[in-house]
Each structure stands twice: as structure tokens, then as C-alpha cells.
Amino acid sequence: MNTIFHITQRQQWEQANLIGSYRGDTLDSEGFIHCSQANQIVKVANRFFPNQSGLVLLAIDSNQVQAEIRYEAAEIGELFPHIYGALNIDAVYQVINFEPQENGFFELPPEVTDLK
């Protein structure tokens, strides 16, 4: 299994479960859902989500994703997985609580370390 991860608000994920698919906010504005590989999670969280609570980390089996996945370079040249289209929720095999530490920054949850 090749796992990719996506950070989202718990409320958005709960709504996705009601309709059967997930459309990240960037899908409409940028045409894709941002995802990360395990070694990119903390960097992404601390850059885009500092001090935000109520987040979950979706562990996604990329082999089960029905939409196209492209690995594309970010501004720093590092490749990030992007899902082009809605994410079928059955591709998500684990939902991990993802809260910042007291200092507002994130650390890699132990569950992710176990998935590597």
C-alpha cells in the first residue's frame, strides 16, 4: 500500500462522509486536493495550519483513489501528491486526530510513524 496524507478540518471530513466523497476547498479554486507524503506532513501543517485545532489527518491508500493522482513540484521543487477530482472516501483507511502542541506547532503523530 502506498499511503498519502491530507490535512482537513474534522467538520469537512464528517460532511464528506454524509455525501460519500471529499472535495477539498482547493479542488474548486486550484483544481486539485493537496496531499503530502509522510515526511512532508509536519512541514505542511506548520506552514499552513499553525495554531489551528479541530484538524484530522486522512491516511489515504493511493491505490484505492479513483481520481487521478499527480506528483507535482511545489515552489521549493519538492514533489507533492495532488488528487485531481473528488476523493472517494473508501480510499481513506485511517482518520488521525491532528492537533497542535501547546506552542501551536505540529509534530508527526505516532500513528503515522507506525504506517511507514
From TrEMBL:
Cross-referenced SUPFAM superfamilies: ADP-ribosylation
InterPro entries: DUF952 (IPR009297)
Listed name of the protein: DUF952 domain-containing protein
Species of the source: Halotia branconii CENA392
